[in-house]
Amino acid sequence: MPRVYVVGAGPGDPELVTVRALRLIESADVLVYDRLIPMELLKRAKPNAELIYVGKEPGRHVMEQGEINNLLLRKALEGKLVVRLHGGDPFVFGRGFEECSFLISNGVECEVVPGVTSAIAAPEQFLIPILLRGVSSSLAIVTGREDPGKGFREVDFRRLATSVGTIVILMGASEACRIALELIQGGLSEATPVAIVTRAYMENSRVLFTTLGELAKCQVTIENPSVIIVGRSVSLSPLYNTSNPIRH
Q: Which residue ranges of the chain lie beneath pLDDT 50?
């Protein structure tokens, strides 16, 4: 029976990919890959493997999701070993679940290989403990930019503000100022520590430490891809310094 492997490539460092993922990359006849995968992984593909880029950037998609789904289906039905390579984990704000659902409904098996999500990896690169005994016992991983097609906003940052110990925001660069304002309105102090990790585990990765109050002034420029971490545990990082960005 035809099968597609939906694989997480981790946060950006090729050494953080799983052994299972690497074996599939090396065996694939067709590699369909995203923008934020470690590009060095493509060098591990077979010489005759077909490499197809389907990356998406805000406002610019090489392929729409429906086209990607049909591409995966077509290649699988040709009898090829197809690997769909996602940055991070394919089910954490990725489209991996949609792809699997489509494939299964069309008679193609789907196997998911988890990847290290940037929601965990980004803070850890800069020694930020998002869950820590005696400091933060709960964690929320949320998107900062919801699908407008839903017609409503599911993430209520005002209610979330005092509900968990640490908040990790993915895809929130363009909405950071609004989010900070809503968290303050929800009860978080303006002095609450914030870390903004940009390009985690990629070339020129860096972290900027600030506070919720400073972020709410709408004067902090945040590039994509970035992960925003909000909570008291941010200040426990031995790298914590609100004066200078730290680069790795």
A: none
Catalytic site residue 34?
A: yes
Ramachandran category for residue 59: left, alpha or beta (phi over 0 → left; psi -120 to 50 → alpha): left
Cα–Cα distance for residue pair 194/213, rounded to 1 Å:
9
Catalytic residue (one of 13, 29, 56, 202) = 56
Task: State the CATH number of the domain containing residue 74.
Answer: 3.40.1010.10
Residues of the domain holding 66: 3-113
* 171 has catalytic annotation: yes
**The pTM is what?**
0.92
